[in-house]
Amino acid sequence: MREALLGLAFAISAIGRSSATVELKPSAAAFDDLPAKFAVDVGEAGICGALEIADPADACSALRRGGVRSNGNGNGTDLVRFALIVRGNCSFQDKIVNAQTAGFRAVIVYDDREKVDLVFMMVDPKDITIPAVFISNEAGQSLKEHAQVGTGECCIYETRIETGWTVLAISFISLIVIFGILALTLFVPRRLLYWRGRTHHVKHVDDKIVAELPSFAFNSARSSDKYTREVCAICLEDYKDGEILKSLPCQHEFHLGCVESWLKKGGLFCPVCKHDVRTKRACQETQRETGL
Question: What pLDDT does residue 277 have?
């Protein structure tokens, strides 16, 4: 049960879709975005810097150097630079690598089309060492205006979003886990009981029944009228005077040791006539009780 719940928690945490928010300061305007798949995360604390429009705007070739610039407040503090890049004309990989080579510390790519859904930028992680996010065209135009003025900060913060597909996936996985737990709870105990029953239900005549069967010593002088035969049908050895025989309810007799071993090891029937020893005994007891 514990392992199943831990597996469910892991699946839910893995499905939760990583996202980020781009925020302009001091205006506090915020825009939703999606981070590049397999690129560097911005971290829980986020990252802030001065926003600059890439030159060229699509960043499909070498960019003018980025790096750091003074924040303009006279305290000697510098801001790292973010590159604002328009989508199109080359891959996301090329755009991010070119900005990274020019010294920018983060990349914001905005869509070149209006009113379309955000997409994940697929990149090769071995070439990427800076965070990169994707925003809508509308958000990009707002950031572009902000960058042209050249004041304030732009910050990227990590957030978590839950989409309809995420909720559906979580519900589906939850159902699988619940049905799995129910199956284990109901099916496994039944199978255990079944196999235990098979293990303990050994087919043999009860020891008490075997002990109650009549025994007597063999006497060859009376063999013609007392015994059905003079050879044990189990071991095929002749009876000898003084040997102890045991008689079954069907009146067939055998060596004591032979017939006891036969019945205790799974022989439910007489070796000669195949009559069930337990049934015969039950019939005799019924007749005895009814006086027949």
Answer: 79
